[in-house]
């Protein structure tokens, strides 16, 4: 009983801080309230995030602001064609004295307290690097120098731009599946926001802008505990479980649920994917959203709100449709929610 | 109309006192001759009595066969009110004669007596008989061989019913059509499965579910029927957060907005908080049935 009340107070306290986090970040990132909310959900679900968007929409700025507000140590690495897994782990160089020397690389430099690891332009890195990330993301540990390093508070943010396709390496399905969310960052649609972004000098100096964000709104060492409390404290009912399973079925076999998309052969559209891990992530995200909304129960709206970000990148289409992937997957997700009845 | 023949103006005096009670008994009849078998004879009796005497209704002659040839068909009394200390009555009598005389013959409708009373005393007023002459219809022995007197019955004349028949059939067809339209409008059988009337169907389903069971399951089934109707109306699954968009696309339901939003809250509680009992307290089954009916009505108005 005592413990239960403790969990409740922890959760409501943390909710206040989560809102503060969103407000802090929204101060410097204009017109991206939805993305900020999704990032907050991912943070409190302890999930890694892949950001996608055009060049110069503020992906890096957003992540730096988030990292500053969450607190803890922050490392970043730029993806390049010649980046090798070792470059993340150690740094080999010659000292002033001319002796070869090996220092810890970006991953190991900060030790266990690393809270945010930001991988810029992840699709420029080679598959070898991706596979190192696989383990890092799944287990929050790596093996180096013959011993294991743990990063209990680690959250990986990665971004990729979708403009270039040359000299890039598409992420393998296994790596994409390990990302909790794949968030698309749109250009702000509101005209006033656009004007401010372009003409207000405040948004020109990124470092000064980031410095405006309050540091350490959250205690990042508490995050794993809060995340566990959310997952155990927010209930899912039988009806919601049935609904989620029905959604999953509908995504995997859309033709059996009477879903039609123009110009698409529904028989062969979905090739695979929507893994059980993906669906469990979906429920995790939905629980966090319900908690953010101040509810103790998950409702279908929670599932729907996070569905595209959590599930879309786990749906693998027939290669024929892969080029038109984005509109098709969006239409599929919308149709699934239109067709599957609830409760 | 022939002048009434005053046949008698009699004051029968049994005693001086009785004479004082019944002032006049006057019998009026039609002509006293030229009657054939089957004729109806209309007689009227004027009666005047002193107040406070009144006519005793029990003494009114009863319509009946009076003798083998004479029937009293009807007898009716008209109270003509009192004036100058006299209370006047008029008695209308219809006799029918069935006498078949071989030659003209005088017959008499027998007299009778009426009773007047003031509550304690009873006095009789005697109506005299009425004599008249009946004639035969034909001579005793017909001379010719012709069956002169026995004619054939008039043939049956068909009543012209063609128009009425047509009107009846037309109104029958129109009524069936109107009934069909009404059934279509209210989505009765056989239009019960009509796609455009999901709420009419849902309202029925809710009523049925809550009639057949009273537990949590029945209540949930009722909620589900309404949910499916919302889905069918919107053409997609409607969640609680979609309500504003739904009301935007289906303005007919806007007046019920608060009730619908309450319904969604209750449903959320019943299904996702697993608190069907609390939900039932919030929106009792009767209210749920009522909401279904109102939604069906709104849907009807909209179409």
Automatic annotation (TrEMBL), chain A:
- Give the matching InterPro entries: AAA+_ATPase (IPR003593), ATPase_AAA-3 (IPR011703), CbbQ/NirQ/NorQ/GpvN (IPR050764), ChlI/MoxR_AAA_lid (IPR041628), ClpA/B (IPR001270), P-loop_NTPase (IPR027417)
Q: What's the superkingdom here? A: Bacteria
- Give the coiled coil ranges: none
Q: Which CDD domains match?
A: AAA (cd00009)
Q: Where are the transmembrane segments?
A: none
Entry-linked SMART domains: AAA
List, alphabetically, the Pfam families matched.
AAA_3, AAA_lid_2
Q: Which residues are in the AAA+ ATPase domain?
A: 45-189
Q: Which GO terms describe its molecular function?
A: ATP binding; ATP hydrolysis activity
Write down what this protein is called.
AAA family ATPase
Organism (species): Phyllobacterium phragmitis
Taxonomy, top ranks, is: Bacteria, Pseudomonadati, Pseudomonadota, Alphaproteobacteria, Hyphomicrobiales
């Amino acid at each position: 009983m005592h413990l239960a009340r403790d969990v409740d107070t922890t959760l409501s306290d943390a909710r206040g801080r989560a809102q503060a986090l969103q407000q802090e970040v929204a101060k410097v990132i204009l017109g991206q309230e939805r993305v900020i909310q999704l990032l907050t959900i991912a943070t409190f679900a302890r999930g890694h995030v892949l950001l996608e968007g055009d060049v110069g929409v503020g992906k890096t700025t957003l992540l730096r602001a988030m990292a500053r507000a969450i607190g803890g140590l922050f490392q970043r690495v730029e993806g390049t064609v010649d980046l090798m897994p070792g470059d993340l782990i150690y740094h080999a160089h010659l000292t002033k004295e001319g002796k070869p020397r090996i220092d810890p690389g970006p991953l190991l430099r900060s030790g266990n307290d690393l809270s945010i690891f930001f991988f810029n332009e992840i699709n420029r890195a080679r598959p070898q690097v991706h596979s190192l990330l696989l383990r890092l993301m799944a287990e929050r540990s790596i093996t180096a120098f013959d011993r294991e390093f743990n990063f209990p508070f680690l959250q990986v943010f990665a971004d990729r731009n979708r403009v270039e396709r040359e000299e890039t390496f598409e992420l393998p399905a296994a790596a994409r599946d390990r990302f909790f969310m794949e968030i698309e960052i749109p250009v702000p649609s509101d005209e006033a926001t656009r004007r401010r972004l372009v003409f207000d000098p405040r948004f020109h100096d990124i470092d000064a802008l980031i410095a405006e964000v309050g540091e350490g709104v959250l205690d990042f060492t508490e995050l794993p505990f809060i995340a566990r409390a959310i997952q155990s404290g927010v209930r899912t009912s039988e009806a919601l479980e049935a609904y989620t399973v029905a959604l999953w079925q509908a995504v995997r076999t859309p033709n059996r649920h009477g879903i039609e998309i123009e110009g698409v052969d529904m028989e062969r559209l979905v090739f695979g994917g929507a893994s059980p891990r993906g669906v469990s992530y979906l429920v995790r995200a939905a629980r966090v959203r319900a908690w953010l909304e101040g509810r103790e129960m998950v409702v279908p709206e929670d599932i729907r709100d996070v569905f595209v970000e959590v599930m879309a990148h786990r749906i693998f289409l027939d290669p024929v449709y892969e080029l038109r992937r984005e509109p098709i997957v969006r239409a599929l997700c919308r149709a699934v929610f239109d067709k599957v009845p609830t409760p | 109309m022939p002048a009434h023949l005053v046949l008698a103006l009699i004051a029968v005096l049994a005693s001086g006192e009785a004479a004082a009670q019944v002032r006049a008994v006057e019998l009026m009849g039609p002509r006293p001759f030229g009657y054939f078998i089957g004729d109806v004879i209309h007689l009227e009796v004027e009666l005047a009595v002193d107040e406070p005497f009144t006519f005793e209704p029990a003494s009114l002659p009863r319509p009946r066969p009076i003798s083998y040839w004479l029937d009293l068909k009807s007898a009716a009394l008209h109270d003509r009110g009192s004036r100058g200390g006299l209370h006047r009555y008029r008695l209308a009598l219809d006799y029918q004669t069935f006498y078949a005389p071989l030659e003209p013959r005088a017959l008499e409708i027998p007299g009778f007596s009426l009773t007047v009373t003031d509550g304690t005393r009873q006095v009789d007023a005697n109506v005299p008989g009425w004599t008249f002459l009946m004639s035969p219809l034909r001579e005793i022995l017909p001379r010719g061989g012709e069956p002169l007197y026995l004619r054939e019955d008039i043939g049956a004349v068909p009543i012209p019913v063609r128009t009425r028949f047509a009107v009846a059939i037309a109104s029958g067809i129109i009524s069936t059509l109107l009934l069909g339209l009404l059934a279509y409008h209210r989505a009765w059988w056989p239009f019960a499965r009509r796609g455009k009337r999901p709420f009419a169907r849902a309202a029925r389903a809710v009523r049925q579910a809550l009639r057949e069971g009273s537990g949590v399951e029945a209540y949930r089934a009722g909620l589900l029927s309404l949910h499916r109707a919302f889905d069918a109306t919107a053409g997609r699954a409607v969640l609680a957060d979609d309500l504003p968009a739904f009301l935007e696309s289906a303005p007919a339901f806007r007046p019920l907005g608060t009730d619908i939003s309450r319904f969604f809250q209750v449903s959320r509680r019943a299904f996702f908080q697993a608190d069907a009992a609390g939900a039932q307290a919030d929106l009792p089954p009767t209210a749920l049935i009522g909401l279904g009916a109102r939604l069906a009505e709104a849907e009807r108005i909209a179409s």
